[in-house]
Amino acid sequence: MKTLAVNSYAKLNLFLEVVNKRRDNYHNLRTVFERIGLCDKIILRARTDKKIRVICRGNYRIPVGKTNLAYRSAELLQRNLGVAAGVDIKIIKHIPVASGMGGGSSNAASVLLGLNKLWGLKLNRKKLVDLAQRIGSDVPFFLYNSRFALGSGRGDKIRPLNSLNALRFRHIIIVPKIRISTPSIYRRWDAIHKTFKLTRSVPDVKIFLHRLKQNNPVVLGGSLFNSLEEISMRLYPRIRRIKERLVSFGLKTILMSGSGPALFGIVSSRKEAISLAKHIRRENRSWQVFVTETV
Ligand code: C5P
User: Fold this and answer.
1) Given the CA of residue 138, which atom of ligand 1 is nearest to it?
2) Measured distance CA(20)–CA(11) in Å, rounded
3) pTM exceeds 0.85, yes or no
């Protein structure tokens, strides 16, 4: 096998509770991931020399050097396993960059899984997860072939929720032209939680999972939760204005994913999503609007 092409899917966080700050400066989370159809395409081509080369095409541009998570995944495999081969990694970007949908992390996981095959490494999942955790907190989720999963620790300890495999949501996603730095949002979280005792109790992930199983968007709507939403909205009031505008369009279940700025809604049908998307695109041409679903 010389080349391999894979879809590298995005994620949404249907639930994201920041539990506390850790000694390593990361934060413990309780989060529910959902894999969605919006995806980048990744084409891996084995090289006989040891070079790793990343090229980027598609709708967005990302740095292709050593900071690129796909590059770092290939390099980590080479170093850890003494691989003599190299690879050309072509990333065709459709997932907005730094939007809260895990595009870079997903690309990293796709490269780990793809090179495991292409380079014939035969790594088991435990080893792949171990490597993925070193690349980023969101990377392990994408190694599991699972539509929904519970994330704990930094979000990197994954429990696939296979009992939810029959569940399929339709989404509309709106991404304003803001690139959010995740560490800056967590720093705000730290500042707020240093000065204020947390009095407002956060929703319970167990109750959320119970509601998720009922598969009733109306019930679920009120229980979607993200600890970082209010923080990102304060820093970028535009996100709040978009949410309010979506509410005025009649959308009831809306949440920000990750540290934002992507906002997603759960809609009842693809038809509803497409018609809503048409209205929203007319409203503001700088917003990117996607219609997608659980995959
Ligand atoms: O793990 P990753 O490199 O994606 O995290 C990016 C940044 O987000 C971290 O440097 C940290 O500031 C913040 N983060 C965190 N707690 C997490 C995940 C991310 O504080 N659970």
Assistant:
1) 4
2) 23
3) yes
